[in-house]
Amino acid sequence: MSDSTQFENTLERLLEESGNSVASRPHFYRELLLSNVLIIPHGAIEESDDPGRQTATLKMAAISHEGVDYVPFFIAEKFLPRETKYLSLPAKTFFEITKGSHLILNPGAQFGKTFSPEEVEKLLTGKMFEVEKEFQVKNSAEVIIGNPKEIPDRLLPELSRFFRSEDSVLRAWLGWYHNPELEKEPGYLLAIETTRSVDFRALAGRVSLVLKEVGTNGRYCDVVQYSGQGITGYFRSTHPFYAKPLWARLKGGLLGW
Fold it and tell me: Mapping DSSP to helix (H, G, I), strand (E, B) and coil, where does residue 195 land?
């Protein structure tokens, strides 16, 4: 892990962490949408000739790589070429005005990232953090559940790392289950115990992003809030793969059992 004093802002730290671990990527995306970014204008900003309209035309420099033109943007002044004039604007605004373009963050730096038009669209619409499907189990449903026979490499370590950065997550279990009413093949069930105040749907969306980034060997993975009842009652007699340390729960008043 790099020395935190070298980072100019939280976004820069999360960008580097995201390069090393997918668990940091949901936090990076969320922080990016709340941050300002730096851009390099190409030529002068052309103001509108109509005094009644407060508009301007902004042209931005582009970088060509393997036949694709990328619009560069930066998260800190130190990543810009020396003596380069730049503008600062909210990341959301930048994404809006460059819709349909390929983007590149911090070109030339050790840690950067490219954004496809589809990825930008998902960020702007919030689809990046949406759960893939609603999870509902009828009380009468015959569900088979047990311990996973195989677990994809890195899945549990990455999920555990993600949960450590989520104050609301207390414990988590991974099961292997099959609900014939919903799916033809068995898959994974991720049960998460949280504090009462959490927006679980938003949390499940961030978890889904980690699941997609790590991969589940082609199997689906449903995310459900643990209550100890219904289908999650199975996990009452099993050990969670993640449990927030006791001192952390005490410090934050997060004791849930």
Answer: coil
